[in-house]
Amino acid sequence: MPLVQTYRWERYERLLREIPGLELVAGRAQLRSPHEVVVTSPVVPALPGLQDVPFLTSDLLSSADDPWQTSLRQQPRSLLILGGGAIALELGQLFARLGTRVTVLTRSSQLLPGVEPELAQTLAELLQAEGPRLRTGVQVQAVVPGSSGVAVTLQRAGRTETLEAEQLLVATGRRPHTEGLGLERAGVALEVNGAVRVDRTLRTSVLHIWAAGDVIGTAWGNQFATPVGAADGKLAAHNALSGEPPRAVDHRVIPRCIFTDPPLAIVGLTDAQAQAEGLTCACRVLPLSLVPRAGAIHRRQGLVKMVIEPNWEGLAIVWPESTWCGPRQSRHQRLLSLQKHYKK
């Protein structure tokens, strides 16, 4: 897509190429030693039979240099999406609104695992009313070429069935993908799940190497979300290059958003996370039908959930956690994030 490529160039690649002494090399990097890096090719996710069929990922939808030649060139009439996270729902709704017949398949019992159940269920109902089929509790057994394009054999509730579509989109979430990076040659320690081990300043076991983003897994409360990775990257660059005392990461104050319509915004701890930390808190769920602004713009569908610690002091209104599923969530999310930041 020319628009995406133009945006990528103007906002990212051009700026990087203008930095003196910095060379931008596209591809997958591998460490040869603590001070040498080589770029290699992407890898295929390990799903049954996936290596034998063409498939899409969110990274390949508009790629001009797609190594597998599977990037999308025209709208499919039907689309199977593997995964039930943010990317699956965002792209599923997009294609459904364009007229594609969309089926979302996830092995989890709930869409958007880790999100407040009330909000995830509300968003699922709103999306499904538009047409996409959302199926949870699915175990994929095989992916093979089909008469329409691709066929997925799955098991759900003890029954086996096969679904076909023109295109397959793999959006099974993110995980630390450190295999083949050569980190052992650089002396960088890894966790059991392959995530790069970092301290609170995002420094690895090698003093001059920092890590940020999905590659650190869930360390220090990290979330697989663009705003979190961007904030961590900025912090890691500061700690590595500024010469100032290193700063510690705090993922509790970074707002996150799922860009569906209505969108879903989150900041702070969830109900389950607060209880796991032993915090005394109260939860409040407010339908947007009771919010005057939602009525004024005729968008009353959605919920707000707040996890409140009653004994906090210093602010008249303190919402340590809030999840908002509804229109115009960004203004409320910024307020909540600022409140949480200044309460620290």
UniProtKB/TrEMBL annotation:
Domain of life (superkingdom)? Bacteria
One example of the protein's molecular function in GO is: flavin adenine dinucleotide binding
Q: Which InterPro entries match?
A: FAD/NAD-bd_sf (IPR036188), FAD/NAD-binding_dom (IPR023753), Pyr_nucl-diS_OxRdtase_dimer (IPR004099)
Where does the Pyridine nucleotide-disulphide oxidoreductase dimerisation domain start and stop, copy by copy? 254-310
Domain FAD/NAD(P)-binding, chain residue ranges per copy? 42-216
Cofactor(s) in the UniProt record: FAD
Record's protein name: FAD/NAD(P)-binding domain-containing protein
Q: Gene3D superfamilies, from UniProt?
A: FAD/NAD(P)-binding domain (3.50.50.60)
